[in-house]
């Protein structure tokens, strides 16, 4: 059994290539073995993978290209199918299905697309499919670009409320200085929960391999983002034997970064950030009892809808006596939800002509007020 229930594994290009130019098939096989082992131990695992550009260079026999965005997008377009084919082949050895998920920053900043992405990932995890996520480099522009998969992995950790984010790199962890240049550099075993110091930021260096786009600075940025939503972050060396299995079991490897809040608090912050949305649903006492026992809000318990909101907006849940009992992200817009009041979930598709779920608000997208 693992010590964590939901784990994000971020693999950098240097980890996938084992420091060479080519994607390393033996390394992928070993990572697939470890990730399948985490799943067998009861954890749900999402993989955020770099390597598409490196795979594209390999397919095109390492061409000399200008260092501008269209060239990188071209390499990513060539390399992404190759990378996914390798993942599918390696995971099939362990009879583990995988799925490709491509995201941009705007997918996670827009509440409706955020909810769609979360629902898709939740559905994949329920079916024991390993989602393999990468930035959609072929369409991303400067405005919607994450810039590196370290920050993408932190966004994904927030998206699915992960317990643990593992950032694998070519170093043992975070040091007081670059150990490749300073022989007196000391390993930093734990950071937080206090604020990151200026000295810590200065200790983070850039990428020296030329293979990836990130370095320790981006990993520290990602860790800062993830820990603010309740995720523990560990920066560790990808070549360490059984590194994923050992970290998931709580072994003291790499640099551990302590979260600032728990996952529930992180969820509250996100949902309440949209609490000014002009919308609410009035529910009966039976629905209030169901919510208090951990249930989702179903249309049968809704008696009235007011306001003007879209799917993914935060709405209030008002019980008898005009008391606000909860807030959450609505699965349906105002006009559609008004047609569902008092109806059974099985009738949603018949009434609307579509369905995105049985719930008005899923329990995972809701917070209760005492």
Structure description:
This protein is an alpha/beta fold. It has two domains: 262 residues, 3-Layer(aba) Sandwich (Carbamate kinase), CATH 3.40.1160; 95 residues, Roll (Archaeosine Trna-guanine Transglycosylase, Chain: A, domain 4). The chain contains 14 helices and 13 strands. The strands form two sheets. The chain has an eight-stranded mixed β-sheet with strand order 3-4-2-1-5-7-8-6, sandwiched between helices. Strands 10-9-11-12-13 form a five-stranded mixed β-sheet, with helices on both faces. Helix 7 packs parallel to helix 9. It is globular, with a radius of gyration of 22 Å. It starts with 5 loop residues before the first strand and ends with a strand. About 2% of the residues have low confidence.
For the termini, the CA-CA separation is 34 Å
Q: Unreliable runs, pLDDT <50, ≥5 residues? A: 206-214
The total count of helices amounts to: 14
Tell me the helix content. 25-40%
Overall pLDDT, averaged? 87
The structural class is alpha/beta
Work out the count of structural domains.
2
- What is the CATH H-level superfamily of the largest domain? Acetylglutamate kinase-like
**In CATH's first tier, which class of the largest domain applies?**
Alpha Beta
């Amino acid at each position: 059994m693992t010590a964590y229930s939901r784990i994000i594994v971020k693999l950098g290009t240097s980890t996938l290539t084992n420091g060479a130019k080519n994607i390393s098939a033996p390394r992928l096989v070993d990572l697939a073995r470890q990730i399948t082992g985490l799943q067998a131990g009861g954890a749900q695992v999402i993989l955020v993978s770099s390597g598409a550009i490196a795979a594209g260079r390999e397919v095109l026999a390492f061409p000399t290209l200008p260092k501008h965005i269209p060239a990188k997008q071209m390499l990513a377009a060539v390399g992404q199918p190759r990378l996914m084919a390798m993942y599918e082949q390696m995971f099939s050895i362990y009879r583990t299905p995988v799925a490709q998920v491509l995201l941009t920053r705007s997918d996670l900043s827009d509440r409706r697309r955020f909810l769609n992405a979360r629902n898709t990932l939740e559905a994949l995890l329920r079916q024991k499919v390993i989602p393999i996520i990468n930035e959609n480099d072929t369409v991303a522009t400067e405005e919607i670009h994450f810039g590196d998969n370290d920050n993408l992995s932190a966004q994904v950790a927030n998206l699915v409320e992960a317990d643990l984010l593992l950032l694998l790199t070519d170093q043992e962890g975070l040091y007081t200085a670059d150990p490749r240049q300073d022989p007196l550099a000391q390993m930093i075993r734990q950071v937080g929960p206090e604020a990151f110091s200026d000295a810590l930021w200065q200790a983070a260096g850039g990428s020296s391999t030329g293979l990836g786009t990130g370095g320790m600075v981006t990993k520290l940025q990602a860790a800062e983002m993830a820990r603010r939503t309740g995720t523990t972050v560990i920066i560790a060396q990808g070549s360490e034997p059984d590194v994923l299995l050992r970290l998931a079991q709580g072994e003291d490897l790499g640099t551990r970064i302590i979260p600032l809040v728990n996952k529930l608090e992180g969820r509250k912050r996100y949902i309440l950030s949209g609490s000014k949305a002009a919308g609410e649903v009035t529910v009966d006492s039976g629905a209030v009892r169901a919510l208090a026992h951990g249930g989702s809000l179903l249309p049968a318990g809704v008696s009235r809808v007011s306001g003007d909101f879209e799917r993914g907006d935060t709405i209030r849940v008002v019980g008898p006596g005009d008391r606000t009992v909860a807030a959450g992200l609505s699965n349906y817009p105002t006009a559609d939800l008004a047609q569902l009041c008092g109806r059974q979930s099985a009738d949603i598709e018949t009434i609307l002509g579509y369905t995105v779920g049985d719930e008005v608000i899923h329990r995972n997208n809701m917070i209760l007020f005492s």
